Amino acid sequence: MLETAATHGLFEATRRSLQAVPNELPAVWLYDARGSRLYDEITRLPDYYLPGREAEILQARSSLLSRRTRARTLVELGSGSAPNTRYLLDALGGTLERYVPFDVSEQALHDSAATIAAAYPAVSVEPVVGDFERDLGALPGAGPRLVAFLGSTIGNLYPAQRAAFLSALAHELGDDDALLLGVDLLKDVDRLEAAYDDPSGVTEAFVRNALRAANRELDASFEQERFDYDPLWDPVNEWMDVGLRARESHAVPVRRLGLELEFAAGERLRVEISAKFRREAFELELERAGLTPESWWTDAAGDFAVVLAHRSRNGRSSHV
Ligand SMILES: C[S@@+](CC[C@H](N)C(=O)[O-])C[C@H]1O[C@@H](n2cnc3c(N)ncnc32)[C@H](O)[C@@H]1O
User: Fold this and answer.
1) pTM, rounded to two decimals
2) Average pLDDT score over residue span 147-176
3) What is the DSSP string of 45-57?
4) Which residues line ligand 1 (CB under 6 A)?
5) Alpha carbon distance 222, 204 (integer Å)
């Protein structure tokens, strides 16, 4: 990856995270072409219940969604391989003209855009490569627009990042537009831990892939065998804290960022968080960002929620 104006912000954010306590490699490094393929494999693991629960909700609510939104444009942030998008595309068939998948992972984006364009010839598929935290800019397409953010990707953002992201989205939405969010709900810790630690090791390979990406793109020298995979439930923050733990004390140069990271034995490198939500607190976050939640739909087991929201009428975020 060449350092351009577009990647400069990402490199700076990575530099700050790697120097923070705990050390963190931002989750965006997980999703190169290999990481996106591994994530796809994760979505098919039996213990990773999220995509199946989200699909159940979208299927059950599709005609209601279509009546409520009448969307001409579907923008999907963090679309990846878009496993559940077809429920939206099917539901919106009567009004939809344009589908805009938006993702940082270029290969995954173009592959899924091609598949969707072939399956839905009446819809214009217009992929955008970008970082939804930095490049959101003006949302494309004619309204009414439905902006979807599925797969509980919102849970990968810290509370302050979520607030900034949701406020930016609220600012971009017009009166006729709607936002559809997939959010994973708080549940039994054993099930949460199992979802991030499958016996076949696919999730571990996915997380370790971030080190490979950093070695390649940041000219770093992370050595896999010096770290153990270490997914933890954080009961205070109510998120899965997914990362790696140094087996021994050692240094890791990250030449492109001019850093030499020192790891003590047992020290962690966080790679992502996956927050689990409670309805009341999440709806409050939406309201503070200038969004009004309109519907909260869950699957039969109450594991996952899909939230439909609009820009608040006064259009103002109360977040400071
Ligand atoms: C948890 S996966 C979800 C993928 C898909 N929506 C699903 O439900 O399976 C997160 C997706 O967001 C993308 N992503 C992560 N950080 C991003 C960022 N900052 N900007 C744009 N896309 C991002 C990843 O490439 C990946 O495709």
Assistant:
1) 0.93
2) 96
3) STT--HHHHHHHH
4) 28, 31, 36, 39, 43, 51, 78-80, 83-84, 103-105, 108, 131-133, 150-151, 153
5) 15
